[in-house]
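Quick one, probably user error.
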């Protein structure tokens, strides 16, 4: 028996739902007309786009679910799509996001430094799966365009990490900043525009203590307090996990904005563990995100429904609309991030 289900499809998101844009300033870019229409007809599913940074996100309302499948517009950015399952009684909705990279259909892309072009090069050698990346084929692999022994070493180790379901370190000396020191671990939270810091979580090996710096309304006071804390930790390395120097660059920019020059100076001791991990630490995972690597080492987040983007969007709504979030929930996520980082550091130091 066929069951008719009302689904609203709209390019523009409903106002104030998955619609915070930042290209022309941080603001809601959703449609108020669509929001009124949505609240009127109350469909169980609404599919929207337009707001790129919320693509691949969903929000549950009292009467249904809004799903944003917007894709970024770079030439090499993948297209995003979603598979939605609605039960016959219309009481349950399940969805799963995908992107066009899934259509490559090759497990070779699970390996570090392997993308579409590299898969094509492997195919020309008759290599179609990771288990064919072996020491015996090193000469062929090193002869590929842009490849070297550095790449082949990591392909082989990463393939072995998948096969053995273990996390391995290729070059322990690359993590010298973590040995014979008492590093200070750090993780920051910002708004979606990434131009305001409102929460910083830390763990001090020197004091064996966690500490958070929290002020959603006075960034200057928060950063001044953080700067004094960094001073208390002398010359010990400051370790964060970004993979793109984000925490360090954002802190430096905001310290400078508020004239806290000593804070900028302290960041000379900062190191992005995510950069080194991408090159030297491998496991049964195809992404080197903090939560992925820590989970492979046995760490579990207390609330798996929260991630950094959710935290940033909740705070941005607070700035734009005065909508008070559950601060304790957001602070718990930040503390979990610091503990996840500590899990990785402890593994490297062991």
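Nope, works fine. Designed sequence:
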């Amino acid at each position: 028996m066929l069951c008719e289900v009302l689904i609203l499809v709209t390019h523009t998101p409903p106002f104030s739902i998955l619609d915070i844009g930042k290209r022309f300033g941080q603001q809601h870019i959703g449609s108020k007309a669509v929001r009124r229409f949505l609240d009127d007809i109350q469909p169980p599913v609404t599919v929207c786009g337009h707001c790129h940074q919320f693509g691949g996100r969903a929000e549950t309302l009292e009467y249904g679910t809004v799903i944003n499948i917007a894709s970024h517009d770079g030439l090499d950015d993948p297209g995003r799509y979603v598979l939605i399952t609605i039960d016959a009684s219309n009481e349950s909705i399940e969805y799963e996001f995908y992107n066009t990279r899934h259509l490559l259909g090759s497990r070779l892309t699970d390996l570090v430094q392997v993308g579409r072009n590299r898969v094509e090069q492997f195919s020309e050698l008759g290599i179609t799966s990771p288990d064919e990346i072996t020491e015996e084929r090193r000469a062929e692999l090193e002869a590929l365009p842009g490849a070297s022994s550095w790449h082949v070493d990591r392909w082989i180790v990463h393939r072995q990490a998948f096969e053995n379901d273990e996390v391995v370190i290729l070059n322990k000396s690359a993590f010298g900043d973590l040995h014979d020191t008492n590093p200070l671990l750090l993780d920051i939270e910002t708004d979606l525009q990434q131009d305001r810091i409102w929460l910083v979580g830390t763990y001090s090996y020197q004091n064996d203590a966690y500490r958070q710096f929290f002020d959603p309304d006075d960034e200057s006071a928060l950063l001044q307090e953080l700067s004094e804390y960094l001073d208390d930790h002398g010359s010990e390395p400051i370790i964060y996990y970004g993979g793109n120097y984000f925490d360090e660059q954002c802190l430096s920019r905001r310290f400078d904005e508020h004239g806290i020059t000593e804070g900028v100076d302290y960041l000379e001791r900062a190191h992005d563990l995510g950069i080194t991990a991408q090159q030297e630490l491998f496991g049964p995972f195809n992404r080197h995100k903090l939560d992925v690597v820590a989970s492979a080492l046995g760490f579990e987040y207390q609330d798996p429904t929260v991630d950094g983007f959710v935290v940033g969007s909740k705070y941005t709504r607070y700035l734009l609309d005065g909508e008070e979030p559950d601060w304790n929930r957001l602070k718990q996520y930040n503390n979990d991030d610091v503990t996840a980082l500590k899990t990785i550091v402890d593994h490297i130091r062991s």
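The longest strand covers residues 197-204.
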